[in-house]
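#structure-requests
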Amino acid sequence: MSGSPIGWSEEHLAYRDAVRRFVDTNLVPLRNEIELGDTPPYDLMRSFYKAFDLDSLALERFERSLDGRPGDDDDSSRSAAETLIPMIEFSRHSPGLVTAMGVSTSLAAGAILSAGTREQKERWACDLLTLQKIGSWAITEPDAGSDAFGSMRSTARPDGHGGWVLNGSKTFITNAPFADTIVFICKLDDGRPPRDREVMTFVLDRGMPGLELSPPLRKMGMHSSPTGEVTAADVRVGEDRLLCANRRATGAVTSTSRREAKSAFAKERASVTAMALGIIDRCLELSVNYAKVRTQFGRPLGDFQLIQLKLAQMEVARMNVENLVLRYVANADAGIRMPLAEASAMKLYAAQSATHVALEAVQVFGGNGYMAEYQVEQLCRDAKVLQIYGGADEIQVTHIAKGLLQGAGARP
């Protein structure tokens, strides 16, 4: 990170150094255990929150939300840089930790803070924000990955007694195997074609009759982020579990689920860019160090022009992605919300860059890079999912193109 006037401030760099010391002291010694074993990351996440007093800041955010003050659906007590810097630093070693933490404290808790009543916020949000409990945000379904809303089949059916009966299956759900609280997104079963039905959101608790949470799924990468399935089979819930900003006198529901989900997508895509920067930064660091000490044909690897080309292209990618993060930080601190199309463009470039840089890092390391003993192997596996979750590359392209065609993507 640079301390230039267009880069990170001295305060940002000091905070980064403090976070990096925490990561080096607390995460790095446990990396193999978390990445190669079955150790959940939540105790480490809680220790980070305590070390940087983030649990107290989370409580302040919660209290603001109860009073209806600004910041009720976001962490305005922290600057954008303070939010993104830990994502970058954790992603240098264990990107999955960022996903696990963000889904619980941002997506799950954020949904409740945005659309919940005071009682719902007090019941669920506080514990999620402080990591006393772990949350999941269940939207993806086996046959509805990128077409999350249009192909959604999970349903909520009125039970005739003021409550609801939920049915449906969710997959690829972060934190699901260990979740205490699940934000379950489904559609109103009102007889209309599924694509036309209203989107609704409920809050469920582990152990409810009919609710099943699978063991962790085996994945290519992001092993430090437990992923599982959520199945609702005739789960009966009361009206108190429905997240909804407005209810009409007729009893019909005006749901904000779709709007809130799209807002969450934009924030998630900015976070993915920070994760990509961490992966790129670490891959470049490891590759440069390796090129200095590894010899081939009696010469350091870094003396060969093809290796120099790879390192140079990695640095260009690092600079570009860092500039995207810095631009986001500047706009966020100025109160400028990023349009979905712009967030999609940022994520598309950053995710592709991280994947390319990680693959090139493996190439620099040669046979060693293919072995789990060397960290570039893990970072390569971790990077690929950045092109898939939070909206696949192909979906980002559609959002960017729509923004351009509607004029929202134009820049002076």
